Amino acid sequence: MNKKSLLIVAAVILVVLAAALAWNFFGNQSGVSAGAEAVIRAAATGPNTDLFDMAAMLQISSANEEERAAAQEASEKQMENWQTAVGAYFAEGALEQFINNGYATGYLAQAAVGDQTLALKELTLVEKTDNHESVDFTYTIGEQEFQARAEFSLGSDGLISRAEFVAVS
Which one of 98, 119, 126, 144 is at 20 to 30 Å from 65 when CA atoms are compared? Predict the structure, then answer.
């Protein structure tokens, strides 16, 4: 191989290497894991009657047997829908805890009660380790903008073992 061919090959290799580095840096700027993003997106985008059904909400004291049964059925369906949407990212029992603590449906409920649109605007990775991930996110309910932080504890298998949302402002 002559000098000119060697220089061309070296230049091509450098261009490919630079493109790969640029893709790695700019291609996934947020760095937020797929599981964290899917969970936040599910909880902060609505209306979504699959993941939050007003029929599942019921004041037990004023409900008759038929209303309780309907609410229970709606609640079970809602749980199934959450399982389908993001269950693959959670360790056993962790999704149920996330839903039962109100983190999963809190924003969806706020939007539904006010008959407003819930939209996720931005995700920003704060910290990521082998067993923890913190993500700040901006969302809107109607015209109002809010910021919150999602905290995820991860098991050794990489699945979410605990998830919670905390208001930032």
Answer: 98
3-state secondary structure of 114: coil
Domains of the chain, by residue range, sit at 34-167
For residue 157, give every residue at least 6 positions away whose Cβ sits within 8 Å of its Cβ, in sequence order, or none.
91
> Cβ neighbours of residue 3 under 8 Å, at least 6 residues apart?
none
Closest CA to 137 of 155, 127, 150: 150
H runs (alpha helix) in the chain = 3-27, 34-43, 65-86, 94-100, 106-113
C-alpha distances in angstroms, 85 versus 67, 79, 80, 143? 27, 10, 9, 27
Q: What is the token pair recorded at 25?
A: 């840096």
- Answering whether pTM is above 0.90, one says no
**Coil/strand/helix, residue 150:** strand
Residue stretches of the chain with pLDDT short of 70: 1, 4-30, 58-62, 169
> Which class is domain 34-167?
alpha beta
Reduce the DSSP state of residue 35 to 3 states and report it: helix
